[in-house]
UniProtKB/TrEMBL annotation:
InterPro entries: P-loop_NTPase, Thymidylate_kin-like_dom, Thymidylate_kinase. Gene3D superfamilies: P-loop containing nucleotide triphosphate hydrolases. This is Thymidylate kinase. It comes from Sulfurimonas gotlandica (strain DSM 19862 / JCM 16533 / GD1). The gene is tmk. GO terms for molecular function: ATP binding; dTMP kinase activity. It is an enzyme of class 2 (transferase). Its EC number is 2.7.4.9. GO terms for biological process: dTDP biosynthetic process; dTTP biosynthetic process; dUDP biosynthetic process.
Length: 190
């Protein structure tokens, strides 16, 4: 089973992935961007926010995704694969950028993934207050510097992205305790 944990920056994705690792010691734990050798280089370029062109940025994420699917996901589809982000983030961030049409975003993601998508998507959903508090507690990267309104619009776009990709979505209140969130994810996997 291939599942993705989605949510905006600071929603608690890495925290939950760590917990799931304890529950599924044999699972393939992975992430986008940056799970492969090429992906690590792409991640550095793209998170430095140097790209002037939003299309270039989109295509860099897609290149990472194509490599990730080919190297990590496709060979392990018979195992439990738990991914921190997926094509859902790719579609959501691109929808908000507004420079690429919805149809092109979906088609290009299909091209990159070969139609391999998570069977279940968990959205860790944050409130504005909690997001602002968590952002204030960390050193921000290029994308996080765009601010809380921007990130909240991405959160809505994540829901829309799962609809466009026709994926099963489980929404979880990310302000709950770490333990309760893990329990809810596990309940929906088993
Ligand atoms: N359920 C939670 N309640 C309170 N704080 C949390 C919770 N989950 C994560 N955090 C904290 O929020 C911050 C961001 O979490 P992280 O897992 O790194 O998010 P992401 O991977 O989505 O960016 C960390 O400081 C983490 O300890
Ligand atoms: C996968 C993906 C991520 N992103 C963004 C979301 C994040 O801001 C960043 C990836 O960083 P990430 O490591 O997921 O950040 P965090 O752990 O703080 O959540 O790239 C896109 O813009 N497009 C994409 O296709």
């Amino acid at each position: 089973m291939y599942i993705a944990i989605e949510g905006i920056d600071t929603a608690g994705k890495s925290t939950q992935i760590q917990k799931l690792k304890e529950n599924f010691p044999d699972a393939i734990i992975t992430k986008e961007p940056g799970a492969t050798a090429i992906g690590k280089e792409i991640r550095e370029i793209v998170l430095s926010a140097k790209a002037q062109s939003k299309k270039a940025e989109f295509l860099l994420f897609l290149a990472d995704r194509a490599e990730h699917i080919k190297e990590v996901v496709e060979p392990n589809l018979d195992k439990m694969i738990i991914s921190d982000r997926s094509a859902v983030s790719g579609v959501a961030y691109a929808l908000i950028q507004g420079e690429i049409s919805e149809t092109a975003i979906v088609h290009l993601n299909r091209f990159a993934t070969g139609g391999i998508y998570p069977q279940k998507v968990f959205l860790l959903k944050l409130t504005k207050e909690e997001l602002e508090y968590r952002l204030s507690q960390k050193e921000l990267d290029g994308i996080e510097l765009r601010g809380s309104e921007y990130l909240l619009s991405i959160q809505d776009a994540i829901i829309k992205a799962t609809e466009l990709l026709n994926l099963e979505l489980v929404t979880i209140d990310a302000t709950n305790s770490i333990e309760d969130i893990t329990k809810e994810i596990l309940k929906n996997i088993e």
